[in-house]
Amino acid sequence: MHPHGPALRHGGGTPVARTGANRRWMSRREIHAQTGTLPDRRPAGRAAISAPYQSRCRLLPPYLQTCLLPFGASGKALHRMGEFLTYFADLRRDAGRQLPFAALLVALGALLEGIGVLAILPFAAVITGTADTQLSRDLLGWMSQFGIDSEWSRAIALVGAFLTLLAIRGVVIWQRDTRLLSLGLGYVDRWRSKLFRAIGAADWPTVSALRRTDIEHAVTNDVARLSAGTDQLLRAGAAAAMVLVQLGIVALLSPLLLVLVGVLMGTALLFTLPLLRKANLLGERITHSGRRIHGVLGDFMASQKLARLNNAEGDFLSRFDSAVSDVRGHQLAFQKSQITARLVFQFAAGVVVLTALLVGFFVLQTPLSVLAVTMVVLARLVGPIQMIAQTGQAIANALPAYGALRGLYADLLAAAECPTARPVEAAQIGGPARLSLTDAGFTYQGQSRPVLHSVSLKIEPGEIIALSGRSGAGKTTLLDILSGLLLPSSGELEIDGALVDSEAAMRGWRSQLAYLPQDPFLFDAPLRENLVWSADNPTDEQVWHALELAGAAEFVRASRGGLETRSGERGQAFSGGERQRLCIARALLRNPRLMILDEATSALDARLENDILTRLSAMRDRFSILYVTHRRDAMIHADRVLSLEEGRIVSQ
Ligand SMILES: Nc1ncnc2c1ncn2[C@@H]1O[C@H](COP(=O)(O)OP(=O)(O)OP(=O)(O)O)[C@@H](O)[C@H]1O
């Protein structure tokens, strides 16, 4: 056995189920623990976010469902409540140990607000010279124990106490608000980061099936909506605490008033309940139309040149306008319903305040100072209660964004490659690889027709093999299997005698090879960054050497910035042939044991292609080479030429 064989076999991770390309490396129980949701048992290969996304949510506990159903709560409403509870539990879990402290600050802030309001009573007593409540009498008595008897000394003491209270309240509220803000921001940051990681960790069939613009929309728009909703929810939590304390004060002053206020406030809140469903529906539509905007924009940017050449900008523009106007329409409808709710509530609140005043004065004969405090309390309650009602709408509107994020995350986790796989560095092994593929078959997810049928292929160390075949014959699919991106649906891949049959082994194998796809890719970054990106800190000397071998040194030297030249978006600053040569240099810097070129020299003229293949062939003591080409001239460098036809190797 090859000394490095076990490294390919092991690396941790237990497959839960393994059926060719549809593998699961994390159990459903694990996924549930991380996301609060259970992924479908459907294969992960086609995990594109379907729109509208069917979020799978943990349902409400059965006892709650039983309680709510008689009140006409529909299945959809229960589903939405379940989704909200899942979101809330997720937020709570994420806040972790910060939560009790934040809750303490919220409670303290609310209490200080309440005490501040109650301080009006002794003030009123001092100003009017009458202590008409027990609280004022107690406080005045307590002050006279300390010799604070005169009106002036009482007023000064009260002003001093009030200012101190205000200062403490300021500090607590500042602490509370900054904590809540960082809780909310941290939560959405972690969502962004875990999505990003999950994309990186998901297997190739899943990731390649995702639409790039859907991912962009999820990581930007959906997360931004979740952020706005979370921020409002946390602030509403603080407001709710304040409302509770102030209602406590009303209860202290006059329990009957409390009942009155409670009944009328409840009625006002009920006005907003029907709007929740609408807010949720509009949220779903905003998510859907937002994705369309990203999709059209992505297609337009990717096909700029073609769109201009075909005068097709108008088509993109009308699709874009239609999606933008849809989003605007839904947002406008949502804002209108918020405005309606606000106005309805303000009207109801006016009725409450006036009723409380009239009932208190004429029916209950409440003392004037108590009535004054009650009015202050009620006036202060209107804002927070209104905010709580609006938060309900905002959350209902943001829940579809949360559902989309959670669903995408669950799909990605279900397709996660073994997270503990430790790839073996090529430099540690060295020397060209021996590769053996036996009876490999492959069928793409959702397709009935196999792309590859019983393909067997051996590459000896240092061997150079050319692969040709018609378009669609399955060449790229075969290369993806040989490079450990796809697991064959049947058959086996062995590297140096070790079976590549697990995610860990696939990751390990990928770190030992260099793969040059048909479309050479460069980031919008300096050339140096582009070249050393996947290598192990090469020196400038090594970088230039690789550039020489790839036939790229000359034009890099000639460019004004040298290695610091920016390559532009997707390498636009260089021609197709130059990009290919830069990518070959990057591949060489990886010290690969197998070099795979999928028509990676197709943009070069025959002389340059010949030149580069000659130089690569001279390095067969370092790596084996497998290259796809259709040019007869290019095949002369190969020891063997294979031809693939309809998924079968027909000549060797
Ligand atoms: N992700 C995918 N999902 C479903 N089918 C796919 C996928 N990728 C490729 N196919 C199908 O598999 C077949 C082989 O594709 P492949 O890209 O391997 O061919 P190829 O020989 O490399 O073609 P070309 O020379 O045109 O690049 C094609 O019929 C293609 O439609």
UniProtKB/TrEMBL annotation:
It is a multi-pass membrane protein. Residues 435-652 form the ABC transporter domain. GO terms for molecular function: ABC-type transporter activity; ATP binding; ATP hydrolysis activity. Residues 104-397 form the ABC transmembrane type-1 domain. Coiled coil: none annotated. InterPro entries: AAA+_ATPase, ABC1_TM_dom, ABC1_TM_sf, ABC_transporter-like_ATP-bd, ABC_transporter-like_CS, P-loop_NTPase, Type_1_exporter. GO terms for cellular component: plasma membrane. Residues 1-20 are annotated as: Disordered. Its main location: membrane. PROSITE patterns: ABC_TM1F, ABC_TRANSPORTER_1, ABC_TRANSPORTER_2. Keywords: ATP-binding, Membrane, Nucleotide-binding, Transmembrane, Transmembrane helix. Gene3D superfamilies: ABC transporter type 1, transmembrane domain, P-loop containing nucleotide triphosphate hydrolases. The chain crosses the membrane at residues 101-127, 152-172, 233-251, 257-276, 343-364. It is found in: Cell membrane. PANTHER family: ATP-BINDING CASSETTE SUB-FAMILY B, ATP-BINDING CASSETTE SUB-FAMILY B MEMBER 6. This is ATP-binding cassette domain-containing protein.
